[in-house]
Design brief:
- The protein is of the alpha/beta class and about 260 residues long.
- The chain has nine helices and six strands.
- Strands 1-2-3-4-5-6 form a six-stranded mixed sheet, with helices on one face.
- It is globular and about 60 Å long.
């Protein structure tokens, strides 16, 4: 943080924004397994008791809310009639993510990160489609809605645009814009570029035209910050005697920051 604070844009440096963390909540989503450590279970029990009172909290969890062990057991092994508990787990996790990100913001501010936007990275695109992207928005929007000096950015992995997925790009930008204020511009913090060599098998090479088209479409919808992810990298494994004429740059993570006027 001291290194960043001395290089912020208001001080004449190149740092125009600071991302607080990366894809908060993503692991719970892709694994379909929420964090249920002892600390989280106890925090959720406190949240439920404060929100509903002991009687209703017990009914919704299917266990005595005043009993720490029983309540944690119900969270980890819910019964057949657990829809209310499932609902409460989702509500609680959103408040937990919000508290966590706001704590990070306070730490950064105490370390001198001021007068630049804080960014929250929203995950959700999968297999070249954006149908699951609203999951990431739902998990994290409470963290930045109505917050000054904060905004969110997308993770856009669409590959080559086709008639099957071009609408996904538009709709996902629209979903993000729906929960942003006038002083919170759209951004994409992982804007897919380069060769998309995610499996380290050199099997994917996206055409530059696809990147240009996705860039133009996002700018047209109001994106004001695009972080080209995997655009240029520092790890280029040598491959001898292939004879295919591909130079194979950008085979590892790297980024160039692009800001529109």
């Amino acid at each position: 943080m001291p290194v960043l604070s001395e290089r912020l844009a208001p001080k004449g440096g190149p740092v125009i924004a600071v991302q607080l963390d990366n894809e908060v909540g993503m692991l719970s989503w892709v694994s379909n397994a929420p964090d249920l450590t002892d600390v989280v279970c106890e925090d959720l029990r406190t949240w439920a008791r404060q929100r509903y009172g002991d009687k209703v909290a017990s009914e919704r969890a299917g266990a005595d809310a005043t009993d720490k062990v029983a309540f944690a057991g119900a969270l980890r092994s819910p019964g057949n009639d657990s829809l209310a508990l499932h609902h409460d787990l989702g509500l609680y996790m959103r408040t937990r993510f919000k508290r966590y990100l706001h704590e990070l913001r306070e730490i950064a501010q105490k370390k001198g990160i001021c007068d630049v936007p804080f960014l929250i990275n929203v995950h959700g695109t999968s297999s070249g489609r954006g149908r699951t992207f609203p999951i990431g928005i739902s998990q994290l929007f409470e963290s930045y809605v109505g917050e000054t000096q904060m905004t969110c950015g997308s993770d856009f992995y669409f590959g080559d645009l086709t008639v099957a997925n071009v609408a996904d790009l538009y709709v996902d930008n629209a979903f993000m814009a729906a929960v942003l204020g006038p002083d919170q511009p759209l951004a994409s913090l992982e804007f897919e570029a380069g060769d998309g060599n995610y499996s380290d098998d050199l099997g994917v090479l996206y055409a530059p035209e696809a990147i240009e088209l996705k860039t133009r479409l996002c700018l047209a919808q109001g994106n004001r910050l695009l972080n080209y992810y995997l655009h240029a990298g520092g790890h280029n494994p040598p491959i001898e005697k292939t004879g295919d004429g591909i130079a194979r740059i950008a085979t590892a993570p790297g980024a160039d920051l692009v800001i529109s006027a």
